[in-house]
Write a structure and sequence with these properties.
- By secondary structure, the protein is of the alpha/beta class.
- It has helices at about 15-25, 40-50, 60-65, 75-85, 100-115, 125, 130-140, 165-175, 180-190, 255-270, 280-295; strands spanning about 5-10, 30-35, 55, 65-70, 90-95, 120, 145-150, 195-200, 205-210, 215-225, 230-240, 240-245.
- It has 2 domains: about 5-125 and about 255-275, Rossmann fold (3-Layer(aba) Sandwich), CATH 3.40.50.720; about 140-245 and about 285-295, Dihydrodipicolinate Reductase, domain 2 (2-Layer Sandwich).
- It has 11 helices and 12 strands.
- The protein is globular.
Length: about 325
C-alpha cells in the first residue's frame, strides 16, 4: 500500500455527490483515485468536480486502487464488493450491504477469503457524539429495554428529498433503508438479536420487536413515509441506572463518513477487524430478512452467519 490509501468510488448518485466524494477528496489519509458510475456522463462530472478522473469500468478502477468506496443500490453493491475483494481491494461499504442474505454472505465471505479490511458506513454509528454514547452505554450495561424511532419523510406527500427517486428505496422501504441505522445502535449495546418480529403500519412504516442475547427486549419504529412534521430520530435506553437517550447529531454525514474512512485506515494498517465490518453487515441483513419474513410467518433466529434468513418466533 502507498503512504496514503488509494481509494476509488463506485457510484454517482445523490449520496455519492453529497457525502462520499467530498469526504474522500478532503481526507488527508486518502488519495481519491477516481470514480466509476453506471452513467459515464455522471462519473465524468463528479470526478471533475473533485479533481480526479472517471473510469470506464470497475475493473479499471480496481487496478489503480487499494480500496473501494461504494455508493450504489444494495444489489449492485454486493456484486461489485465481491469482485473488489477478490481483486484484493479493501472495502468501505454502505448500508445495507445487501437486501438478501446470500448476497450479504457472499460479500463477507469474499472479504474473509481475500484477507481484506472492510467497514460498513452507518451515519449514527460513526457520528462522534453518537459513537461515544454507544460505547458508554455498552460498557455500562444493565439495560432491560430500549426503543428507537427512525422516521423519515422521503416518500411523504410534501417531500422534496433527492432520494425519493431511488427505485430500491421505493421497493424495499424503510425496513431496509433506515432499519439498519436502528440495528447499528441496538445490537452493539444490547447484544445480538435472538428473536425478531415485525408488523406493518401505514405506508412503509414497520414496527420491529427484538429479544437480545443480554435478555433485553427492544423495539424500533421505522418509516420513510412519515409526515414531515413527525419526522426525526430518537433512541432511549432504560436500565438499572435510569434512562439515556441518543444525543442529537451535531455534524453532517460527511463528518461521520470521514470517521468511517479513519476506521478503514486503522483496520488496513493494524490488520484488526472493525466491529462494524462486512460480517456485521451480514448480521444486519439477516435480522432484517427475518423481520421481513415475519410478515408472513414465524420461527427462531440462529446465530450470526448461520443459515439463510434467521427464522423467527
Amino acid at each position: 500500500m502507498t503512504t496514503t490509501l488509494r481509494i476509488g468510488l463506485l457510484g454517482t448518485g445523490p449520496w455519492a455527490q453529497r457525502v462520499h466524494a467530498p469526504a474522500l477528496a478532503a481526507h488527508p489519509g486518502v488519495t481519491f483515485t477516481g470514480v466509476w458510475g453506471r452513467r459515464p456522463e455522471a462519473a465524468e462530472a463528479l470526478a471533475a468536480s473533485h479533481g480526479t478522473r472517471p473510469y470506464a469500468t470497475p475493473a479499471d478502477l480496481f487496478a489503480d486502487t487499494d480500496a473501494l468506496a461504494i455508493a450504489l443500490p444494495p444489489a449492485v453493491q454486493a456484486d461489485l464488493a465481491v469482485r473488489a475483494a477478490e481483486a484484493g481491494r479493501h472495502l468501505l461499504l454502505d448500508k445495507p450491504v445487501a437486501t438478501s442474505v446470500p448476497e450479504a454472505r457472499a460479500v463477507a465471505d469474499a472479504a474473509d477469503r481475500a484477507g481484506v479490511a472492510s467497514v460498513v458506513f452507518f451515519t449514527a454509528r460513526f457520528g462522534a457524539a453518537e459513537g461515544e454514547w454507544i460505547d458508554r452505554a455498552a460498557a455500562a450495561g444493565g439495560w432491560f429495554t430500549a426503543h428507537a424511532d427512525w422516521l423519515g419523510s422521503v416518500f411523504a406527500a410534501d417531500s422534496d428529498s433527492p432520494y425519493a427517486a431511488s427505485p430500491w428505496r421505493r421497493e424495499k422501504g424503510a425496513l431496509w433503508d433506515v432499519g439498519p441505522h436502528a440495528l447499528s445502535l441496538l445490537l452493539p449495546i444490547l447484544g445480538d438479536a435472538e428473536q425478531v418480529t415485525a408488523a406493518r403500519g401505514p405506508g412503509d412504516t414497520v414496527l420491529l420487536t427484538l429479544r437480545h442475547t443480554s435478555g433485553a427486549a427492544s423495539s424500533a419504529t421505522v418509516s420513510l413515509t412519515a409526515p414531515s412534521a413527525a419526522s426525526g430520530v430518537s433512541v432511549t435506553l432504560y436500565g438499572s441506572s435510569g434512562t439515556t437517550s441518543l444525543p442529537r447529531r451535531q455534524d453532517g454525514p460527511e463528518v461521520a463518513y470521514a470517521r468511517a474512512v479513519d476506521a478503514l485506515l486503522t483496520a488496513v494498517r493494524s490488520g484488526e477487524r472493525h466491529p462494524c465490518d462486512a460480517r456485521f453487515g451480514l448480521r444486519v441483513t439477516e435480522v432484517l430478512a427475518a423481520a421481513e419474513a415475519s410478515f408472513e410467518g414465524a420461527g427462531r433466529s440462529g446465530g450470526p452467519g448461520r443459515g439463510d434468513a434467521p427464522p423467527l418466533t
